């Protein structure tokens, strides 16, 4: 009985350590998957941001604090692009607002490389 309780306590303690570790690992795995999809995104075409909206929202939720706001910038821009749809006037307006998104994405890219060892596609 004592042996079972000791084993159970060890497993429970180990589980809490694994949970803390797997959240960061899960973010890194999701980030790598996102990177594979983001290859097709042209940063100068706001309509392309719609392609990564769902992934960006998921990453924003699980992102570390140092890039959570940057993901918020990407998500907000992608949502605006989605709302614009095929309205060329609105998309043209958004094209002029890519600077903030590019800065946020550079922060995300740097953090991805440093913390997750993930290379995201470069924005040109």
TrEMBL record:
Source species, domain of life: Bacteria
Entry protein name: Small secreted protein
Organism: Kribbella hippodromi
